[in-house]
Design goal:
The complex is a heterodimer. By secondary structure, chain A is mainly α. Chain A contains 12 helices and no strands. The longest helix of chain A is centred in the middle third of the chain and has 37 residues. Chain B is built from 11 helices and no strands. The longest helix of chain B has 38 residues. The chains are: A mainly alpha, B mainly alpha. At the A-B interface, α6, α7, α10 and α12 of A face α1, α5, α6, α9 and α10 of B.
């Protein structure tokens, strides 16, 4: 074996080595997620629920807001209503589909907004420190004085019901915890040596935040935010259940549950359905969040 | 230690001031004002002005806030627009009724949560772990107001063994008749703390189990159960803290369960106030619940500091 050959071989071995060890973090996360049967099962279930809600106009068999007084509270299978009808004779299958749209919207949108606002506030508070930090974090302490559902009820109760107010109320509710997590992680990351090195090399704050801090903070707060979605869905449906959220005659799972409350004496199976949907959706989000957390190995 | 407690209590003052400001701002964002409900549509401007003046609504906004704050701080929670009763009386009675649910619920949820969480961690990665973790995740995923409905359907409608509505006779729950009314709402309310506590305990026990002192205990020859006892002692402070928080959430969050069971607690009071547009009752209830929550948080912090000296920063 000549010297020439060894030199020629070395680069290939090195490339192989780098290909194995240097695979990107996200590729490994994806691999772990795909190997997790529980997460994949419930992710598929969630996809089906979301797809059904999105495709509601295509697959709904009846108008979700109009019914017949002659077909009230019928059991599944009655005259083309394969899931039965509700207390004013509206087709339950169509209402479940349309209801999913509003429930998912009122559940997911607040977390997304809170992630945007709360994440940025926490980032600024953690990065700037000092007075800015005190101001932001002490304001959050004030919002922490309200147990989450109380704040949502206070906002919806005072401002009135409706989809917009529900989303606003839940967004305000979820901002404080996201700010806290984002601030804690940013403060930790800021003291790492690579951030100091970037600053010493003259990088402007904007690019330090963009490249060094955001990349480290985003993962954990995303995982945390996914765990909030299930709470958000239960609360959003809960607000509608109280009559503070989505207004009739729109279909929304919590509101449907409220309308069907008396019907539980007549036709318990029909009355229980919207609750089953809320439970399944919230369960899917919870298990997805757990799976994501262990795949990304995030400690919160 | 006393210094820690004093500092913690003093910090509650600005928090409560901030919270009162939030409630006041929300109050002022109500479409129309508190007097609108009272003023008959055919009333003249003078009558309307008179009613507004009676509630201090003719003052500039910052004076209104200070007047309101002074009244609240002195314990005068105002008068209900709807029933003309002092809010403080109604609220106190309702809070007592909510406590009757929240206290047993948090106790039940905490005990079951610790038990399930510890068992899941002790039998880590076996079918028992999966079973108890499954309980926990179901507990946090269930819309509890729906569970309440289902429990009513099963136990009150089909089997007719437990009452599904109301509180039964007044007074401290001592007779079977009173306890019977408690069972379904308490079980419903305990689901969330059960799930949350159990998840935390399992995660904590697993983490502590991987620490060095645990290996030392095992190496010393202690049995698995004895080692678990040591681990639980270390997991206790955070579980206790969580229990305090959950208790606060239950006090406010019982509104959904109270609605299902027609329980005359603070949640029902709030619900009624919202639909009657009874702003004095609503704002006072929210503020008092927030104050209670802040007090619970202080208690939890002090309790934690008592158990774990490292917390006394």
């Amino acid at each position: 074996m000549s010297l020439q050959e060894t030199i020629a071989v070395a680069p290939i071995a090195e490339t192989l080595h780098r290909a194995r060890a240097g695979r990107s973090y996200w590729a490994r996360v994806r691999e772990r997620l795909l190997a997790d049967p529980v997460t994949m099962t419930f992710a598929t279930l969630l996809l089906i629920i979301v797809a059904m809600a999105l495709a509601a106009p295509l697959i709904a068999t009846y108008d979700p807001t109009s019914g017949s007084a002659f077909a009230r509270l019928k059991s599944p299978g009655y005259a083309g209503h394969w899931l039965g009808t509700d207390e004013v004779g509206r087709d339950l299958w169509s209402r479940i589909l349309y209801g999913g749209r509003l429930t998912l919207l009122c559940g997911v949108a607040p977390v997304a907004f809170a992630l945007l606002v709360g994440g940025s506030l926490g980032l600024v508070a953690g990065y700037r420190g000092g007075l800015v930090n005190s101001f932001i974090m002490r304001s959050m302490d004030v919002l922490y004085a309200f147990p989450s559902i109380l704040l949502a009820i206070a906002i919806c109760g005072m401002l009135g019901s409706g989809v917009g107010n529900t989303i606003l109320a839940l967004t305000v509710t979820f901002i404080p915890p996201i700010v806290r997590i984002s601030e804690t992680i940013t403060t930790q990351v800021r003291s790492f040596e690579f951030v100091e090195a970037a600053r010493a090399s003259g990088a402007p704050s904007a690019s330090i935040i963009r490249f060094h801090i955001l990349n480290n903070v985003l993962g954990p707060i995303l995982v945390y935010a996914t765990s909030l979605i299930s709470i958000s869905i239960i609360l959003a449906a809960g607000l509608s259940f109280l009559g503070l959220g989505v207004t009739p005659p729109n279909a929304e799972w919590g509101l449907m549950l409220n309308n069907l409350r008396q019907a539980i004496w007549v036709n318990p199976l029909v009355a229980a359905l919207p609750g089953v949907m809320i439970f399944m959706t919230s369960m899917c989000f919870n298990l997805m969040s757990d799976g994501l957390r262990s795949a990304m190995d995030v400690r919160l | 230690m006393w210094f820690f407690i004093a500092r913690r209590v003093l910090y509650a003052v600005p928090i409560l001031l901030g919270a009162s400001l939030v409630v006041f701002v929300l109050m002022k964002m109500v479409p129309g004002d508190a007097a609108d409900v009272l003023i008959p549509p055919e009333a003249g401007k003078e009558v309307a002005d008179m009613i507004r003046a009676r509630f201090g609504l003719d003052q500039p906004i910052h004076i209104q806030y200070l007047l309101w704050l002074r009244a609240m701080a002195s314990g005068d929670l105002g008068v209900s627009i709807f029933t003309n009763q002092p809010v403080a009386e109604e609220l106190f009675a309702a809070l007592v009724n909510t406590l009757k649910l929240a206290l047993p619920a948090v106790f039940l949820g905490f005990s079951l949560g610790v038990l399930f969480g510890a068992l899941a961690a002790y039998y880590h990665a076996t079918w028992l772990d999966k079973l108890f973790s499954g309980f926990a995740i179901t507990g946090v995923s269930l819309p509890h107001y729906w569970v309440g409905m289902v429990l009513v359907a099963i136990f009150a409608v089909v089997f007719n063994v437990l009452p599904g509505q109301g509180m039964g006779p007044e007074g401290f729950p001592s007779s079977w008749e009173q306890v019977k009314h408690l069972i379904l709402p308490v079980v419903t309310l305990s689901l969330i703390p059960m799930g949350v506590v159990s998840r935390l305990v399992r995660a904590n026990v697993l983490e502590i189990r991987s620490m060095e002192f645990v290996s030392a205990l095992a190496a010393k020859g202690l049995t698995g159960r004895r080692v678990l006892l040591h681990i639980m002692k270390n997991a206790a402070p955070s579980a206790l803290a969580l229990m305090g928080l959950q208790f606060g959430y239950l006090l406010a969050g019982s509104i959904l369960v109270e609605t299902v069971f027609n329980w005359p607690g603070s949640g029902s009071l709030m619900n009624l106030a919202i639909f009657r547009r009874d702003i004095p009752v609503l704002s006072a209830t929210i503020l008092v619940l927030a104050a209670i929550f802040v007090a619970i948080n202080i208690l939890v912090d002090v309790l934690q500091a008592l158990i774990d000296p490292r917390m006394r920063r």
